[in-house]
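ingest -> validate -> predict -> emit
validate: passed (alphabet ok, no gaps, 252 aa)
predict: started
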Amino acid sequence: MATAEASLLPPEEGRPPQRVAPGLWLFAPSRESQGGSAWLLEAAGTDLLIDCPAFTRANLRFLAGRPRHRAGGSAESQTWILLTGRGGHGRCRRLQQALGWPVLVQEQEAYLLPGVDPLHTFASEHRLAPDVRLLWTPGPSPGACVVHVAPVGGVGQDGLFCGRLLVPVAPARLAPLRQRGTFHWGRQLRSLERLRQWLPSGSPDWIASGAGLGALRGPKLVEKGASLLRNLNLEALALQPPGGPMTPKPLS
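emit:
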């Protein structure tokens, strides 16, 4: 870890993340992010911690033991904490202090992270690595974003980490939900339309949500991500009241 100070070590042991696919791990739901889900991905040239898991000893041991671990905030860092929205911040400052990994967040939500150093921001789009791109998708929160990992040279992952832009509503089903904490429902739907235009044709193969995954009742990744996004009926969703239907009618 970046420091040996006992004050930075969490009191709770917790349990380590589970491997759900080659190069991809899912952390246990975290009370610190309202039961949300954090992921660790091995991309082509870097390790990406996508949202913050619970601040536990088991999680710190796992992350500090990554072979690509390199403390510091240079552009060549091989480890990053990427935040997809305020719901996934958890105890980011304590985690970052213990690990020394740089944090990347959309600029609208940087003010929520006082004391986090190094802290990097982006505006509309950002390419972190040849196979990793980020897109600002406001709606669930002002600085919500998604992370797309694409195969390099046709080899590797093709997935989308959608944060809370889409949440599990049934087995193998994700949808946007208009909830009491939603920042702006209209912007969230416009973000989904922009996302569909931004992604390459036929992409992604799978989607990983940053929300609680209990409704999936099985596999943690939702396959056929491109089809799921294409079939969202955004016009019908625009009429959804807060706390409305959990399974909106798809396009025919």
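The chain has one domain: 13-237.
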